[in-house]
Amino acid sequence: MATYAIGDVQGCFDELQALLARLDFDSRHDRLWFVGDLVNRGPQSLEVLRFVRDLGERAVTVLGNHDFHLLCVFEGHEKPRTGDTLDRVLDAPDARELVDWLRSRPLMHVERNYAMVHAGLLPQWTISMARALAEEVQRALAAPNYGEFLAHLYGGAPDHWDEALTGWDRLRVLVNAMTRMRFCTLEGRMNVRAKGREAPAGYLPWFEARPTRAEAAIVCGHWSTLGLKLTERLAVLDTGCVWGGALSALRLEDRALTQLPCARHRVPGED
Question: In this structure, are residues 196 and 225 in contact, taking their beta carbons and an 8 Å threshold?
């Protein structure tokens, strides 16, 4: 039995299938961990969603910013953006089933010596604290009035964590940190707009801002301009498949890396 953590798929179904063939993936025994952003920008988001859903307990996926965008567009709380490739999902006869399955996915997954989140964690958060906070978002998504949460999801404020935060502001900070953040200050003030490799003045990559702790290694994606980054405590796996980079899989048992070169479905900077 092997567990493979896989970087941002973003609708690249053919590349995902080719990668799994290269891994000799056995759905009876092996498991897949997806770092989020199953959908959008690539051409086959519908096929990716159906495939991962049908894997059942053999697949774990956390929510990414593009996954949240699909939820918001489907429920009418956000308009489609230039470059979206979500129409086939939105028009599918099983769209409601797929959206309900997607919104039941966690924001963070912790198992054995690994913690998986799409973007990152603020320096103030231990793994156990972050997991508890992520469950607050999961409960909001499962609530009958979850559309109200989506209606208040977008925005960059507040830009830092405070335990005293309540309501939509509290949930928005949690989602921004775990699905959008690349840079923050040592005090945990986020910049969710910057996308490049270089930190804006006064900011650090979020993983450099975190203090050293004896805790689970973090597996994440989201940062294609950074690319692959593997350390003892970190695995950043978004290697830009949809941009013509590669789709990456890390076997968690021994940290063996497999990468599949990908066709370019989008031009970098086309967003």
Answer: yes
Please say whether the beta carbons of 18 and 44 come within 8 A: no
- pTM, rounded to two decimals: 0.96
Contact predicate 84/57, CB 8 Å: no
Domain count of the chain?
1
CA distances from 123 to 102, 200, 210, 233 (A): 28, 17, 4, 14
Q: Under a CB-based contact definition with an 8 Å cutoff, are residues 102 and 50 in contact?
A: no
- List the structure tokens of 227: 């690319």
CA distance 31 to 236: 19
C-alpha dist (Å) from residue 221 to 36, 128, 163, 191, 226: 7, 20, 26, 17, 10
35 in Cβ contact with 52 (< 8 Å): no
Question: Which whole-number Å values give the CA distances from 154 to 77, 128, 164, 248, in the listed order?
Answer: 10, 26, 20, 29
Bridge partners, residue 183, by sequence? 191, 205
Contact (CB, 8 A) for 191 and 223: no
Task: Give the CATH number of the domain where residue 182 resides.
Answer: 3.60.21.10
Instruction: Give 47-83 pLDDT, tens digit per residue.
Output: 999 999 999 999 999 999 999 999 999 999 999 999 9
Q: CA 50: distance to chain centroid?
A: 17
Tell me, yes or no, whether 256 lies in a domain: yes
Would you say residue 269 lies in a domain?
no
Domain assignment of residue 267, yes or no: no
Mean pLDDT across 184-194: 95
Measured CA to CA, the distance from residue 96 to residue 100 in angstroms comes to 6
